[in-house]
Amino acid sequence: MNEKHPIMFVGSGPGDPELITVKGKNALEAADLVVYAGSLAPKDVVCWARPDAVLENSASMHLDQIVELLANGYSEGKRVVRLHTGDPSLYGAIFEQMVELRRRGIPYEVVPGVTAAFAAAARLGLEYTLPDVSQTLILTRMAGRTPVPEFESLESLAAHKASMAVYLSASMAERMGEILAGAYGKDSPVVVAYKVSQPGERIVWTTPEKLADTMNDEKIDRHALVLAGKVLEVTEDTLQYSKLYDRTFSHGFRKGQ
To answer: Which end of the chain has fewer surrounding CB within 10 Å, N or C?
Structure first.
């Protein structure tokens, strides 16, 4: 009887193969079968797989086909990795796959990954949670073919004026710009992070008022994240330092001077 191995759902990160976690890399190196989300993940990410591993691009597959592929690999005793972009818990349609595996009594594990919002922050040298500016980061998307609950509309979330990363909405740049202009100001900075960490990456600064024109000029209508928030306006001259490293601030590991 074949030894069985749990299906490994692995977050591949934002595209740079080196931004996968060590645990994710180990899973790929051990895999006999890798089913990767080729519509979003560049194939470069599967470079950690063995040369003899079977690679299956799920871009053209529907749910039943994907689950059947995973289930067959499991029943044959293969080590199977289901490779998702970024972190699989965020816009990954992962839960429905896990539900189908549960119904078949197939065990699985999830390895988290780096999502594009954090890769963009790293590239920009940006902190989303600055003292007296913002202590909240909202990760969201606009309603398109996939609906968004009414109480989670971009208008209602942007009204908080928190740091914000808008996913999967590049094709709706005109409406997005109008909403961000109303919340943050038409001349406030916004950033378009296109294919961040991947070959062809572009980081474009613009404003809500010019967002649609900028994205049109740059020919960006997908694979882009839009960042907004007051943290984008902070400079060395306006930064409020945190209490954490303030020499006068006491906490459990240090007495203030």
So the answer is: N
Count of residues making up the chain: 257
* C-beta of residue 122 within 8 angstroms of C-beta of residue 50: no
Cα separation, 248 vs 238, whole angstroms: 20
232-246: per-residue pLDDT in tens? 999 876 666 665 665
Per the DSSP assignment, residues forming a β-bridge with 81 are 8, 34
Residues in contact with 23: Cβ distance below 8 Å, sequence separation at least 6, in sequence order: 111
Specify the amino acid at residue 115.
T
CB 144 within 8 A of CB 115: no
CA atoms within 13 A on the CB side of 182: 12
User: For residue 76, what is the DSSP state?
Assistant: T
Separation of alpha carbons 123 and 192, rounded Å: 12
At residue 37, the pLDDT reads: 86
User: Residue 32: what pLDDT?
Assistant: 98
215 within 8 A of 105, measured Cβ to Cβ: no
Which of the residues in the chain have pLDDT under 50?
Answer: none
Q: What angle do CA 93, 223, 114 make, to 5 degrees?
A: 60
- Encode pLDDT of 191-225 as tens digits: 999 999 998 999 999 999 999 999 999 999 988 99
- Give the rounded distance of the alpha carbon of 250 from its chain centre: 36
Check residue 38 and give its pLDDT: 82
